[in-house]
Amino acid sequence: MSGIFSQFTQWLHDVFVAQWDGWIVLGFVAQALFMMRFVVQWLASEKARKSVMPVAFWFFSLGGGTLLLIYAIRQKDPVFIAGQGLGLIVYIRNLSLIYREKKHKQMNS
Asked: Where are the transmembrane segments (predicted)?
């Protein structure tokens, strides 16, 4: 049993301490930004008492997704690169649709 615990603590050290550098910090910052989109969406939905998608969701998605893509490129992870790269297209498209709708409403008011 102590051998398993020793292996686990060594694994924790290898993963979370031994390879710690600026890229790991960037990865954690990126993941925190990406996670904030869910927090913002949840709080907005709770306030409205219905499911809503605030504009901040898309900005956190874009910021976190961009940083995660940079991290994935540095790590040379093709799955992560493809996922984040394609996600950025969706985030940018949603922001452009929101901008177009606001511009349209301003022109008609």
From this structure: 20-40, 52-73, 79-99
